[in-house]
Amino acid sequence: MKVIYSFIAVLLLTGVSNAAYLVPSKLDASHADAREKAFIPWSTPEEGAVYWKKLSSSNVPIYKELKDGNLGRDIYIPNPGIGYWVLGGLSEKALWKTQDEKLKIGDELVSASVYKDRNGDVTYWALWAPQDKSHLLKDKMREFGITPASVEFTFQDKLRMFSYDLAPYTAVGVFATLILTVLLLLTALFIIRGACRHSCTDNSSQN
User: Fold this and answer.
1) How far apart are CA 26 and CA 63, in angstroms?
2) Does position 56 have pLDDT exceeding 60, yes or no?
């Protein structure tokens, strides 16, 4: 029993000590030419907003680059028919808050970029899409040599995702647990009663 308790303690301590961390999208140098042809021109935030307004209704931005702290450019691809959520200029806190919210509704992080400005401040750009359709974007990203982003989950994160998956079955699970508990209790009482009878019979035989 002590071994079991020690194992559980190790798991809990591991989950507490290690925070989830972001693995940003990576670029394959062998596909640089394909990316250069697909990028929109380097743009100020205002110019980028014009491209967004023009393209976002029928296209998805699958990757973003920034330079000089102000200029940015994106690679847009035709939307394969999925909903998506993209945010830029995120702080680390805002990134993880959004990630947690998206996780709850079945969305998955697809692409992410990390930038540090001249003052050393770090900001994030990220794209999410429904988990069951995110492969449609990831496959296209790989054609441009862009590795999809990912999040390495902690022990608690994995438990939380497991609880989300079980949520629709919670009531059934509780009821089944109660039934099993009652059956185990009745079985234990039956065994104890049988043992008592056996003991009483043995005592009578000795007398």
Assistant:
1) 10
2) yes
